[in-house]
Amino acid sequence: MVISLKELYGGLKVSLQNVTDSPDFEAKELLRHLFGITTADILMDRRPDLSEEKLGELETLVQRRLSREPLQYIIGSWEFYGREFAVGEGVLIPRPDTEVLAEQVLDYLKGKENPRVLELCGGSGCLAATIALEHPGAEVTVVEKSPEAFAYLTKNCEALKSGVRCILGDALDTGVVLGDFDCILSNPPYLSAKDMSELEPEVRKEPVMALYGEEDGLFFYRELTALWKNRLLPGGMLAYEIGMGQHDDVAEILRTNGLNNVCQTRDCGGIIRVLTGVKPADETLKID
Ligand SMILES: C[S@@+](CC[C@H](N)C(=O)[O-])C[C@H]1O[C@@H](n2cnc3c(N)ncnc32)[C@H](O)[C@@H]1O
């Protein structure tokens, strides 16, 4: 039986609506990924050469999606700040909200010739590579503890020719990297125990190590701020992505660690998503 593209697309949407609020988008993404089919092809009902074998491959991917594997893992890459990053089991999928953190850091770096930038908890490398590529003079180092995530981090940073230095190590150990930095940024694990109990099935397939910020979700903000504030150059900026509703607590953590000009930035959904604090420029002594 010959199936038209419109019929195939329609059937896919019906299957996918059981697991997603965006069945049209996901159906198109699967068709694009597997067969290179575009929206224009669907609209014009072009008949691609879909062998039984190819349809079988599509069925396998649909079954994976119906078992609540994230679409991004199935496709094997996802876009962040206009570039593709390889993703799969073991690494956090880059989120659009995280682009707000990249933008804040890039704004801060404007006009600085060879700033030293450190990212803690690098995951796929979406932040580190973006900053290095969008601010070509920056010397960017990134630290990641999970060997599974680190494999994606190095692969992405190398594929994009970002020049980022990737370190497999613990962000809770300041011995992993030498020197002081103009900017230290992190999108650390920040979900609380309650958040973890309410996760969507797809998010449960992402690594716990990328998500869980201990009982109140604030563990990494407390630890990283206390540990790394002394590795900021005078006038240097510490920048965090934060979870919904964490802004007052994280602002307090920044201030009690001696950082000034604490600023917040909202994401497209109006949620305060990024907090930054600056080390006083006249700071000659280390902050206690
Ligand atoms: C929320 S994800 C962020 C990933 C990526 N930066 C992004 O924005 O998509 C947090 C990352 O921190 C890593 N991680 C957790 N604990 C860590 C630690 N102690 N040291 C270094 N990395 C850690 C996780 O493996 C995960 O890749």
What do these coordinates show?
The structure is a single chain. This protein has 288 residues and is an alpha/beta fold. It is built from 13 helices and nine strands. It folds into two domains: 5-67; 77-278, Vaccinia Virus protein VP39 (Rossmann fold). A seven-stranded mixed sheet has the order 5-4-3-6-7-9-8, with helices on both faces. It is elongated and about 75 Å long. Bound molecules: S-adenosylmethionine.
Mean pLDDT rating: 95
Please mark out the parts with pLDDT under 50 across 5 or more consecutive residues, or reply none: none
User: Which CATH architecture of the largest domain?
Assistant: 3-Layer(aba) Sandwich
How many domains, in number, for the residues? 2
Strand content: 15-25%
- Judged by helices, strands and strand pairing, the structural class is alpha/beta
Find the CATH superfamily of the largest domain.
Vaccinia Virus protein VP39
CATH class of the largest domain: Alpha Beta
Supply the key terms.
288 residues, Rossmann fold, 2 domains, two-stranded antiparallel ribbon, elongated
Secondary-structure map with pairings?
Blueprint: H1 5-16, H2 23-35, H3 39-43, H4 52-66, H5 71-75, E1 77-80, E2 83-86, H6 98-109, E3 116-120, H7 126-134, E4 139-144, H8 147-159, E5 165-168, E6 181-186, H9 193-197, H10 201-204, H11 208-211, H12 219-228, E7 232-241, H13 247-256, E8 260-266, E9 272-278
Parallel strand pairs: 3-4, 3-6, 4-5, 6-7
Antiparallel strand pairs: 1-2, 7-9, 8-9
Helix pairs in contact: 1-2, 2-4, 6-7
The chain binds S-adenosylmethionine.
